[in-house]
Design the sequence.
Protein backbone atom coordinates (compact mmCIF):
# COMPACT_ATOMS: atom_id res chain seq x y z
CA UNK A 1 0.00 0.00 0.00
CA UNK A 2 1.27 3.51 -0.84
CA UNK A 3 2.04 5.43 2.36
CA UNK A 4 -0.05 8.50 3.19
CA UNK A 5 1.91 11.49 4.45
CA UNK A 6 0.15 13.14 7.38
CA UNK A 7 1.01 15.80 9.98
CA UNK A 8 -0.57 13.72 12.75
CA UNK A 9 -2.18 10.29 12.73
CA UNK A 10 -5.88 10.66 11.83
CA UNK A 11 -8.33 10.38 14.70
CA UNK A 12 -11.06 8.81 12.56
CA UNK A 13 -11.19 5.26 11.16
CA UNK A 14 -8.57 4.27 8.60
CA UNK A 15 -8.43 1.59 5.93
CA UNK A 16 -7.07 -1.76 7.22
CA UNK A 17 -3.33 -2.00 6.69
CA UNK A 18 -2.98 1.70 5.77
CA UNK A 19 0.62 2.94 6.09
CA UNK A 20 1.32 6.49 7.30
CA UNK A 21 4.39 8.65 7.24
CA UNK A 22 4.13 11.14 10.09
CA UNK A 23 5.54 14.47 8.94
CA UNK A 24 5.23 16.05 12.35
CA UNK A 25 7.46 13.44 13.96
CA UNK A 26 9.49 15.60 16.34
CA UNK A 27 10.08 13.36 19.33
CA UNK A 28 12.89 15.05 21.18
CA UNK A 29 10.91 17.49 23.27
CA UNK A 30 10.76 18.01 27.05
CA UNK A 31 11.95 15.06 29.14
CA UNK A 32 11.49 12.50 26.32
CA UNK A 33 15.21 12.86 25.61
CA UNK A 34 16.32 11.68 29.06
CA UNK A 35 18.65 8.69 28.87
CA UNK A 36 18.97 6.29 25.96
CA UNK A 37 16.63 3.32 25.99
CA UNK A 38 16.13 0.62 23.35
CA UNK A 39 12.72 0.48 21.71
CA UNK A 40 11.45 3.92 22.82
CA UNK A 41 8.37 4.59 20.76
CA UNK A 42 7.48 7.97 19.36
CA UNK A 43 5.32 10.12 21.69
CA UNK A 44 2.91 10.67 18.80
CA UNK A 45 1.49 7.18 19.41
CA UNK A 46 0.34 7.53 23.04
CA UNK A 47 -0.80 11.09 22.24
CA UNK A 48 -2.87 9.79 19.31
CA UNK A 49 -4.36 6.97 21.43
CA UNK A 50 -5.43 9.37 24.21
CA UNK A 51 -6.93 11.85 21.75
CA UNK A 52 -8.84 9.10 19.98
CA UNK A 53 -10.25 7.45 23.07
CA UNK A 54 -10.31 10.00 25.91
CA UNK A 55 -11.13 13.64 26.53
CA UNK A 56 -8.25 15.92 27.40
CA UNK A 57 -7.76 16.59 31.12
CA UNK A 58 -10.18 13.83 32.11
CA UNK A 59 -7.83 12.29 34.70
CA UNK A 60 -8.62 8.80 33.36
CA UNK A 61 -6.50 5.81 34.29
CA UNK A 62 -4.05 4.98 31.48
CA UNK A 63 -1.80 1.93 31.86
CA UNK A 64 1.42 1.18 29.99
CA UNK A 65 2.28 -2.40 31.04
CA UNK A 66 5.69 -2.34 29.29
CA UNK A 67 6.43 1.27 30.11
CA UNK A 68 10.19 1.21 29.39
CA UNK A 69 11.63 4.70 29.70
CA UNK A 70 8.16 6.21 30.18
CA UNK A 71 7.13 7.84 26.89
CA UNK A 72 3.46 7.11 27.62
CA UNK A 73 3.62 8.57 31.13
CA UNK A 74 5.17 11.86 29.96
CA UNK A 75 2.29 12.16 27.48
CA UNK A 76 -0.21 11.37 30.28
CA UNK A 77 1.15 14.34 32.24
CA UNK A 78 0.69 16.57 29.20
CA UNK A 79 -2.77 15.24 28.32
CA UNK A 80 -4.14 15.41 31.87
CA UNK A 81 -4.58 11.65 32.48
CA UNK A 82 -3.57 9.46 35.39
CA UNK A 83 -0.72 7.36 33.98
CA UNK A 84 0.50 4.11 35.55
CA UNK A 85 3.53 2.19 34.30
CA UNK A 86 4.86 -1.33 34.82
CA UNK A 87 8.22 -2.74 33.75
CA UNK A 88 10.52 -5.53 34.91
CA UNK A 89 13.58 -3.47 34.09
CA UNK A 90 14.69 -1.47 37.16
CA UNK A 91 16.73 1.09 35.21
CA UNK A 92 13.73 1.68 32.92
CA UNK A 93 11.55 2.29 35.96
CA UNK A 94 14.02 4.80 37.35
CA UNK A 95 14.33 6.66 34.01
CA UNK A 96 10.54 6.73 33.81
CA UNK A 97 10.18 7.99 37.37
CA UNK A 98 12.75 10.74 36.83
CA UNK A 99 11.22 11.85 33.51
CA UNK A 100 7.85 12.32 35.16
CA UNK A 101 8.68 13.58 38.66
CA UNK A 102 8.59 17.34 38.76
CA UNK A 103 11.19 18.98 40.99
CA UNK A 104 10.88 22.42 42.58
CA UNK A 105 11.84 25.07 40.02
CA UNK A 106 14.12 26.91 42.45
CA UNK A 107 16.01 23.73 43.21
CA UNK A 108 16.45 23.02 39.49
CA UNK A 109 17.56 26.57 38.79
CA UNK A 110 20.47 26.46 41.23
CA UNK A 111 21.43 22.82 40.64
CA UNK A 112 23.94 23.26 37.74
CA UNK A 113 25.91 25.90 39.61
CA UNK A 114 26.04 23.86 42.82
CA UNK A 115 27.03 20.71 40.93
CA UNK A 116 29.74 22.58 39.03
CA UNK A 117 31.28 23.76 42.30
CA UNK A 118 31.10 20.30 43.85
CA UNK A 119 32.67 18.68 40.77
CA UNK A 120 35.57 21.09 41.07
CA UNK A 121 35.99 20.33 44.75
CA UNK A 122 35.58 16.54 44.73
CA UNK A 123 38.58 14.92 43.05
CA UNK A 124 37.99 11.32 44.04
CA UNK A 125 35.18 9.08 45.13
CA UNK A 126 35.07 5.73 46.84
CA UNK A 127 32.56 4.04 44.55
CA UNK A 128 34.21 1.93 41.85
CA UNK A 129 32.76 -1.05 39.91
CA UNK A 130 33.86 -4.32 41.52
CA UNK A 131 34.48 -6.16 38.27
CA UNK A 132 37.67 -7.88 37.12
CA UNK A 133 37.35 -6.48 33.57
CA UNK A 134 37.03 -2.80 34.56
CA UNK A 135 40.14 -1.74 32.57
CA UNK A 136 38.53 -3.13 29.42
CA UNK A 137 35.53 -0.84 29.79
CA UNK A 138 36.98 2.36 31.28
CA UNK A 139 40.36 4.12 31.24
CA UNK A 140 41.89 5.39 34.50
CA UNK A 141 40.72 8.98 34.05
CA UNK A 142 37.15 7.88 33.32
CA UNK A 143 37.17 5.69 36.44
CA UNK A 144 38.49 8.55 38.58
CA UNK A 145 36.00 11.09 37.20
CA UNK A 146 32.97 8.79 37.26
CA UNK A 147 33.85 7.84 40.81
CA UNK A 148 34.07 11.53 41.81
CA UNK A 149 30.72 12.29 40.11
CA UNK A 150 29.10 9.38 41.91
CA UNK A 151 30.42 10.84 45.20
CA UNK A 152 28.82 14.21 44.36
CA UNK A 153 25.52 12.48 43.56
CA UNK A 154 25.71 10.65 46.90
CA UNK A 155 25.64 14.02 48.68
CA UNK A 156 21.95 14.23 47.68
CA UNK A 157 20.89 10.94 49.34
CA UNK A 158 18.62 12.73 51.79
CA UNK A 159 16.63 14.32 48.92
CA UNK A 160 15.38 11.16 47.15
CA UNK A 161 13.80 12.80 44.05
CA UNK A 162 16.81 14.99 43.42
CA UNK A 163 19.12 12.05 44.07
CA UNK A 164 17.25 9.93 41.47
CA UNK A 165 17.37 12.82 38.99
CA UNK A 166 21.16 13.10 39.40
CA UNK A 167 21.62 9.32 39.28
CA UNK A 168 19.92 9.29 35.88
CA UNK A 169 22.06 12.24 34.70
CA UNK A 170 25.08 10.20 35.83
CA UNK A 171 23.92 6.98 34.19
CA UNK A 172 23.22 8.92 30.96
CA UNK A 173 26.91 9.83 30.58
CA UNK A 174 28.53 6.51 31.55
CA UNK A 175 28.51 4.99 28.06
CA UNK A 176 29.99 8.06 26.39
CA UNK A 177 32.75 8.21 29.01
CA UNK A 178 33.52 4.49 28.58
CA UNK A 179 35.54 2.61 25.94
CA UNK A 180 32.35 0.96 24.68
CA UNK A 181 30.95 1.86 21.28
CA UNK A 182 28.37 4.70 21.27
CA UNK A 183 26.76 3.81 17.96
CA UNK A 184 25.07 0.56 18.94
CA UNK A 185 22.82 -0.32 21.84
CA UNK A 186 24.85 -3.41 22.72
CA UNK A 187 27.70 -2.81 25.14
CA UNK A 188 30.97 -3.82 23.51
CA UNK A 189 34.40 -2.33 22.83
CA UNK A 190 34.91 -2.19 19.08
CA UNK A 191 38.33 -3.20 17.80
CA UNK A 192 37.74 -1.65 14.39
CA UNK A 193 36.29 1.77 15.36
CA UNK A 194 38.64 3.32 17.87
CA UNK A 195 36.78 5.51 20.34
CA UNK A 196 38.12 8.34 22.44
CA UNK A 197 36.03 8.43 25.63
CA UNK A 198 34.52 11.85 26.37
CA UNK A 199 35.55 13.58 29.62
CA UNK A 200 32.92 12.58 32.17
CA UNK A 201 32.71 15.72 34.33
CA UNK A 202 31.78 18.24 31.60
CA UNK A 203 29.43 15.67 30.07
CA UNK A 204 27.67 15.23 33.40
CA UNK A 205 27.42 18.97 34.05
CA UNK A 206 25.94 19.59 30.58
CA UNK A 207 23.45 16.79 31.14
CA UNK A 208 22.37 18.24 34.50
CA UNK A 209 21.90 21.64 32.85
CA UNK A 210 19.96 20.25 29.89
CA UNK A 211 17.73 17.92 31.95
CA UNK A 212 17.01 20.66 34.52
CA UNK A 213 15.89 23.07 31.76
CA UNK A 214 13.68 20.41 30.21
CA UNK A 215 12.18 19.54 33.58
CA UNK A 216 11.28 23.20 34.25
CA UNK A 217 9.54 23.37 30.84
CA UNK A 218 7.65 20.15 31.52
CA UNK A 219 6.47 21.61 34.82
CA UNK A 220 5.01 24.59 32.96
CA UNK A 221 3.07 22.35 30.56
CA UNK A 222 1.72 19.58 32.79
CA UNK A 223 -2.07 19.47 32.71
CA UNK A 224 -4.00 19.92 35.91
CA UNK A 225 -5.19 16.30 36.12
CA UNK A 226 -2.01 14.73 34.79
CA UNK A 227 -0.09 12.32 37.02
CA UNK A 228 2.40 9.48 36.60
CA UNK A 229 3.16 6.46 38.81
CA UNK A 230 5.56 3.61 38.17
CA UNK A 231 4.72 0.43 40.08
CA UNK A 232 7.58 -1.40 41.72
CA UNK A 233 8.58 -4.94 40.77
CA UNK A 234 5.49 -5.74 38.73
CA UNK A 235 5.32 -8.25 35.89
CA UNK A 236 3.03 -7.72 32.90
CA UNK A 237 2.18 -11.45 32.92
CA UNK A 238 0.32 -11.20 36.21
CA UNK A 239 -1.70 -8.02 35.91
CA UNK A 240 -4.74 -8.98 38.04
CA UNK A 241 -2.43 -9.78 40.99
CA UNK A 242 -0.48 -6.55 40.48
CA UNK A 243 -3.70 -4.56 40.22
CA UNK A 244 -5.29 -5.89 43.35
CA UNK A 245 -2.03 -5.48 45.32
CA UNK A 246 -1.86 -1.84 44.21
CA UNK A 247 -5.58 -1.41 44.91
CA UNK A 248 -6.22 0.46 41.68
CA UNK A 249 -9.54 0.92 39.84
CA UNK A 250 -10.09 -0.58 36.40
CA UNK A 251 -8.08 0.78 33.49
CA UNK A 252 -9.70 3.23 31.05
CA UNK A 253 -7.10 2.90 28.29
CA UNK A 254 -3.92 0.83 27.86
CA UNK A 255 -1.12 1.87 25.53
CA UNK A 256 2.18 0.11 25.00
CA UNK A 257 4.97 -1.16 22.79
CA UNK A 258 5.61 -4.71 24.03
CA UNK A 259 9.01 -6.44 23.89
CA UNK A 260 10.04 -8.03 20.59
CA UNK A 261 10.79 -11.70 20.12
CA UNK A 262 14.48 -12.09 20.93
CA UNK A 263 15.56 -8.72 19.63
CA UNK A 264 16.55 -6.49 22.54
CA UNK A 265 18.69 -7.60 25.46
CA UNK A 266 18.00 -4.72 27.84
CA UNK A 267 20.47 -5.85 30.49
CA UNK A 268 23.29 -6.30 27.97
CA UNK A 269 22.54 -2.84 26.54
CA UNK A 270 22.81 -1.28 30.00
CA UNK A 271 25.84 -3.20 31.20
CA UNK A 272 28.23 -0.22 31.46
CA UNK A 273 25.62 1.82 33.37
CA UNK A 274 24.79 -1.11 35.66
CA UNK A 275 28.46 -1.50 36.58
CA UNK A 276 28.20 1.99 38.08
CA UNK A 277 24.70 2.14 39.53
CA UNK A 278 23.51 -1.49 39.43
CA UNK A 279 24.15 -2.13 43.13
CA UNK A 280 20.87 -0.22 43.71
CA UNK A 281 19.09 -3.34 42.41
CA UNK A 282 21.76 -5.95 43.18
CA UNK A 283 22.74 -5.97 39.49
CA UNK A 284 26.29 -4.65 39.54
CA UNK A 285 28.06 -7.76 38.23
CA UNK A 286 27.69 -9.65 34.97
CA UNK A 287 26.68 -12.92 36.64
CA UNK A 288 23.83 -11.21 38.55
CA UNK A 289 22.79 -9.43 35.34
CA UNK A 290 22.72 -12.70 33.35
CA UNK A 291 20.47 -14.34 35.90
CA UNK A 292 18.09 -11.38 35.79
CA UNK A 293 17.65 -11.63 31.99
CA UNK A 294 15.30 -14.61 32.36
CA UNK A 295 12.57 -12.27 33.66
CA UNK A 296 12.09 -10.48 30.33
CA UNK A 297 9.40 -11.52 27.88
CA UNK A 298 11.04 -12.36 24.54
CA UNK A 299 14.40 -13.33 26.03
CA UNK A 300 16.46 -15.87 24.11
CA UNK A 301 18.53 -16.85 27.15
CA UNK A 302 18.77 -20.64 27.41
CA UNK A 303 16.02 -21.42 29.84
CA UNK A 304 15.66 -24.53 31.98
CA UNK A 305 11.95 -23.91 32.67
CA UNK A 306 9.69 -26.26 30.65
CA UNK A 307 8.29 -24.84 27.39
CA UNK A 308 4.58 -24.09 27.99
CA UNK A 309 1.92 -26.14 26.16
CA UNK A 310 0.87 -24.72 22.80
CA UNK A 311 -2.81 -25.78 22.97
CA UNK A 312 -4.18 -22.32 23.61
CA UNK A 313 -1.98 -20.54 21.07
CA UNK A 314 -3.79 -19.54 17.88
CA UNK A 315 -3.30 -21.71 14.77
CA UNK A 316 -1.44 -18.86 13.03
CA UNK A 317 1.21 -18.82 15.81
CA UNK A 318 1.57 -22.60 15.69
CA UNK A 319 2.03 -22.46 11.91
CA UNK A 320 4.96 -20.01 12.20
CA UNK A 321 6.47 -21.89 15.14
CA UNK A 322 6.49 -25.03 12.97
CA UNK A 323 8.17 -23.19 10.11
CA UNK A 324 10.88 -21.72 12.38
CA UNK A 325 11.39 -25.12 14.08
CA UNK A 326 12.50 -26.62 10.75
CA UNK A 327 15.67 -24.50 10.91
CA UNK A 328 15.94 -23.69 14.62
CA UNK A 329 14.09 -25.72 17.28
CA UNK A 330 15.69 -23.38 19.85
CA UNK A 331 14.10 -20.27 18.30
CA UNK A 332 10.79 -22.11 17.97
CA UNK A 333 10.87 -22.58 21.77
CA UNK A 334 11.69 -18.88 22.22
CA UNK A 335 8.61 -18.09 20.08
CA UNK A 336 6.34 -20.40 22.08
CA UNK A 337 7.46 -18.80 25.33
CA UNK A 338 7.00 -15.32 23.85
CA UNK A 339 3.47 -15.84 22.54
CA UNK A 340 2.52 -17.88 25.66
CA UNK A 341 3.68 -14.98 27.84
CA UNK A 342 1.86 -12.42 25.71
CA UNK A 343 -1.32 -14.51 25.84
CA UNK A 344 -1.08 -14.58 29.67
CA UNK A 345 -0.57 -10.83 29.50
CA UNK A 346 -3.66 -10.30 27.32
CA UNK A 347 -5.73 -12.54 29.64
CA UNK A 348 -4.73 -10.39 32.61
CA UNK A 349 -5.19 -7.12 30.75
CA UNK A 350 -8.72 -8.08 29.78
CA UNK A 351 -9.56 -8.56 33.47
CA UNK A 352 -8.30 -5.17 34.60
CA UNK A 353 -9.63 -3.12 31.67
CA UNK A 354 -13.05 -1.56 31.84
CA UNK A 355 -15.58 -3.15 29.55
CA UNK A 356 -15.30 -1.71 25.99
CA UNK A 357 -12.06 0.05 26.90
CA UNK A 358 -9.23 0.07 24.36
CA UNK A 359 -5.77 -1.39 24.30
CA UNK A 360 -3.41 0.20 21.75
CA UNK A 361 -0.16 -1.63 20.93
CA UNK A 362 2.76 -0.71 18.71
CA UNK A 363 4.45 -3.80 17.32
CA UNK A 364 7.35 -4.43 14.93
CA UNK A 365 7.60 -7.62 12.87
CA UNK A 366 10.80 -9.69 12.90
CA UNK A 367 12.71 -12.32 11.00
CA UNK A 368 13.56 -15.51 12.88
CA UNK A 369 15.70 -18.26 11.38
CA UNK A 370 15.09 -16.70 7.96
CA UNK A 371 11.30 -16.74 8.41
CA UNK A 372 9.50 -13.37 8.19
CA UNK A 373 7.21 -13.51 11.23
CA UNK A 374 4.24 -11.10 11.12
CA UNK A 375 4.37 -10.53 14.88
CA UNK A 376 1.63 -7.89 14.77
CA UNK A 377 -0.86 -10.33 13.21
CA UNK A 378 0.11 -13.13 15.58
CA UNK A 379 -0.20 -10.89 18.64
CA UNK A 380 -3.55 -9.69 17.40
CA UNK A 381 -4.64 -13.33 17.10
CA UNK A 382 -3.44 -14.03 20.68
CA UNK A 383 -5.44 -11.00 21.85
CA UNK A 384 -8.55 -12.41 20.15
CA UNK A 385 -8.07 -15.69 22.06
CA UNK A 386 -8.00 -13.61 25.28
CA UNK A 387 -11.30 -11.95 24.40
CA UNK A 388 -10.28 -8.82 22.51
CA UNK A 389 -11.21 -7.78 19.01
CA UNK A 390 -9.07 -5.63 16.74
CA UNK A 391 -10.84 -2.40 15.94
CA UNK A 392 -8.22 -1.17 13.54
CA UNK A 393 -4.69 -1.99 12.43
CA UNK A 394 -2.41 0.35 10.52
CA UNK A 395 1.29 1.05 10.16
CA UNK A 396 3.64 4.00 10.24
CA UNK A 397 7.11 4.35 8.83
CA UNK A 398 9.95 4.97 11.19
CA UNK A 399 11.74 8.08 10.06
CA UNK A 400 13.16 9.29 13.34
CA UNK A 401 16.23 7.13 13.62
CA UNK A 402 17.63 8.61 16.83
CA UNK A 403 14.63 7.37 18.84
CA UNK A 404 15.01 3.82 17.54
CA UNK A 405 17.75 1.30 17.13
CA UNK A 406 17.85 -0.66 13.89
CA UNK A 407 16.95 -4.27 14.36
CA UNK A 408 19.08 -5.26 11.37
CA UNK A 409 20.90 -8.58 11.32
CA UNK A 410 19.74 -11.24 13.71
CA UNK A 411 16.52 -9.52 14.75
CA UNK A 412 15.64 -8.59 11.13
CA UNK A 413 15.33 -5.11 9.59
CA UNK A 414 12.09 -3.38 10.53
CA UNK A 415 10.78 -0.80 8.10
CA UNK A 416 7.62 0.20 9.86
CA UNK A 417 5.76 -0.43 13.07
CA UNK A 418 2.16 -1.56 13.33
CA UNK A 419 -0.48 0.03 15.54
CA UNK A 420 -3.15 -2.39 16.76
CA UNK A 421 -6.20 -0.90 18.42
CA UNK A 422 -8.03 -3.57 20.44
CA UNK A 423 -11.28 -3.48 22.38
CA UNK A 424 -12.65 -5.79 25.02
CA UNK A 425 -15.84 -7.10 23.55
CA UNK A 426 -15.84 -10.88 23.53
CA UNK A 427 -15.04 -13.69 25.92
CA UNK A 428 -11.69 -15.48 26.21
CA UNK A 429 -11.52 -18.80 24.32
CA UNK A 430 -9.32 -21.87 24.42
CA UNK A 431 -7.79 -20.81 21.10
CA UNK A 432 -9.50 -23.37 18.87
CA UNK A 433 -12.98 -21.90 18.73
CA UNK A 434 -11.94 -18.42 17.59
CA UNK A 435 -13.26 -17.13 14.31
CA UNK A 436 -10.30 -16.74 11.96
CA UNK A 437 -8.03 -13.71 11.83
CA UNK A 438 -8.69 -10.62 13.89
CA UNK A 439 -10.91 -8.11 12.16
CA UNK A 440 -8.25 -5.45 11.60
CA UNK A 441 -9.83 -2.19 10.51
CA UNK A 442 -13.44 -3.18 11.04
CA UNK A 443 -14.95 -0.97 13.68
CA UNK A 444 -16.83 -2.76 16.41
CA UNK A 445 -19.84 -1.04 17.92
CA UNK A 446 -18.91 0.13 21.41
C1 LIG B 1 9.78 -1.91 23.64
S1 LIG B 1 10.16 -1.63 25.32
C2 LIG B 1 9.06 -0.33 25.78
C3 LIG B 1 9.64 1.02 25.47
C4 LIG B 1 8.73 2.19 25.84
N1 LIG B 1 7.56 2.25 25.00
C5 LIG B 1 9.48 3.50 25.74
O1 LIG B 1 9.05 4.39 25.00
O2 LIG B 1 10.54 3.62 26.39
C6 LIG B 1 9.49 -3.05 26.07
C7 LIG B 1 9.66 -3.12 27.59
O3 LIG B 1 9.08 -4.32 28.08
C8 LIG B 1 9.75 -4.63 29.30
N2 LIG B 1 9.42 -5.99 29.72
C9 LIG B 1 9.92 -7.17 29.27
N3 LIG B 1 9.36 -8.20 29.94
C10 LIG B 1 8.48 -7.67 30.83
C11 LIG B 1 7.58 -8.23 31.80
N4 LIG B 1 7.52 -9.54 32.01
N5 LIG B 1 6.81 -7.37 32.52
C12 LIG B 1 6.89 -6.02 32.34
N6 LIG B 1 7.75 -5.44 31.46
C13 LIG B 1 8.52 -6.26 30.70
C14 LIG B 1 11.20 -4.38 28.95
O4 LIG B 1 11.98 -4.20 30.12
C15 LIG B 1 11.11 -3.13 28.10
O5 LIG B 1 11.31 -1.98 28.85
Sequence:
Amino acid sequence: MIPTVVDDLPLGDVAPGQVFVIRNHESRYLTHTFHKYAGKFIPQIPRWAMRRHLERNEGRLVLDPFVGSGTTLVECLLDGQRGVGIDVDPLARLICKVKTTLLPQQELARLPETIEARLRAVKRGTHKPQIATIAHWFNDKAIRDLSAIRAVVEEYRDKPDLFDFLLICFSAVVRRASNADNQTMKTYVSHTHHKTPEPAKPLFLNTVRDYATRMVKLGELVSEKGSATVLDNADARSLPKVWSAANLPKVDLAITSPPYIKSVDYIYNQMAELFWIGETWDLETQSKQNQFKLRYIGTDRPNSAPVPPVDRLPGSVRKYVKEVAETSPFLADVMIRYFGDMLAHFDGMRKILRSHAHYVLVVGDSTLAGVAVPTHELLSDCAVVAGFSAQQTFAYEIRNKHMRFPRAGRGGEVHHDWVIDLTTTSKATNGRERRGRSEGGRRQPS
Notes: The chain has 15 helices and eleven strands. Residues 4-101+229-262+298-424 form a domain with the Rossmann fold fold (CATH 3.40.50.150). Confidence is low (pLDDT under 50) at residues 400-414, 433-446.
